Amino acid sequence: MNYVEITQQDDTLTITLTEEGKNYALECIEAGMSHYELFYELMEYWLCNGYTLVNGYQIGGWLTDCDVLGEDMYHDDNGEVILSGNVYVNVAWYQVYSNLDMMLKGECIYSLVE
User: Fold this and answer.
1) Segment 46-84, tens digit of pLDDT
2) Domain containing 46: what range?
3) What is the tally of structural domains in the chain?
4) pTM for this prediction
């Protein structure tokens, strides 16, 4: 089931919950699922179809452990992250809100890292 839509425009990815996604998220929160675990579950369709979500420390040089969303990112035989496409980061997640909080309020925006 696809619970979110991702729209790519210029240097940003905008993640928006579908109506089914919003209902599912509220049910899961009420049942006690953590925001972090729920975010991964809501993103499952996209994570199985071209996007990868990793911790900032996994790609080195980042001073934050905020999630990094990459296109065509994969792990080599040693478990190291290999970047071969665009990389997006949502610094507001780490500083202020969870990704899920932002999605429940309307949208979660990831910016292209250059």
Assistant:
1) 989 888 887 766 666 555 667 778 887 777 898 777 777
2) 4-112
3) 1
4) 0.76
